[in-house]
Structure formats: structure tokens, C-alpha cells
What does this fold into?
Amino acid sequence: MARPKEFDPTDALDKAMAVFWAKGYHDTSIRDLVEATGVNYYGLYSTFEDKHGLFLAALDRYRDTVTRQILAVLDQPDQPMSAISQALDGVVLTTRLTDGHRGCLMCNTAVELTPFDKAAARRVRKNMSVLRNAFRGAVVRAQEVGEVANDKDEDALAEFLAMTVYSISVLARTEASEDQIRRYVQTALGTLN
It folds into this structure.
């Protein structure tokens, strides 16, 4: 008979995600994860197999929580350009929380690991696909209501907006000022008109 878990795996995962987000995969030690989660090595390993398994679960959790929360505003059928602007504003706010320069966990992972880690690369690509699909829907709605010209390629615009999310994240990591980042966002939004 298996022993019941003495911790909440979702809570532990959220705490581990925050550590990976702040420090990256390589700079996060098992000790950091134990201290942040309050779960001993055996508890973490019995649930997530190892540090890498915990990291991959954290990437999935990030996509399913942080990315989806930012993109939820895009589901509004009215004023799609306003929704796109609000989504990008959400990215600016999210990437600058805590110490002010954490960026995006997926973008950070893309830079740190994807050339060497196929499982992490798949998750980064899946997150990009989620971004692209959400922005595509908003762009199509914006075209339908006349906020974006119909002759513009909705797939190219959706890809551009998804890449803008990652660009905002890089700017946040490089300690660009909030004014600089907001000017960048306004310029990106201007390309949609």
C-alpha cells in the first residue's frame, strides 16, 4: 500500500516554478528546491522523478497558468485590439514582478536549454503555439470588426505578436526601463494598423 503524500504536489510545483523562473535550470540546486517547497528530496523525487522531471512539470504548469492567464483577456469578443494591448500589458507586468527582471520562464528556457534539451524545447514550442493560436484568434476578430486591415496576413501577425511576448521578456531580463518596454509594445501594436 502506497503512503499518502504529505505535501500538496501542485503547491510544491508552483514554488519550484518560481525558483526555476528566477534562477534558471542550471543555477537552481536541489537544495534550493527543497528549501522553496518545504518538501524533502525523497518527496520531490517520488513525485517528479528528478530535478529535470520537476523542471519539465514546472514548464507545463507555467504554460497552463501564467501563459493562459495572460492570454485569457484575448477571449473577449468586443474590442479585440484593446484585448491584444491588455494581453501585452499583462506580459510587461508579469515579466517584471518580484525582483523586476525575471522575464518569461519559457523564453529563459529557450535561451538556456533548448539547444541541448529536446523535452524542454518541445515545451517551449508548445507554449509558442498557444501564444500564436490565441493571438491569431484576436487578430481575426480585429479584422472582422475593422480594427485591422483584412489584407494583412493573420498568421504572420499572430506569429509577430507571439514573438513580441518573448521580446518583452528579453527586454525585462536586460533591465530595460518600463518606459522603454512600453514604447516597444506601442510600436508593436502600431504595426497592426
In short: The chain is about 70% helix and 0% strand. The radius of gyration is 18 Å. Residues 91 and 165 are 7 Å apart (CA to CA). Residues 60-190 form a domain with the Tetracycline Repressor; domain 2 fold (CATH 1.10.357.10).
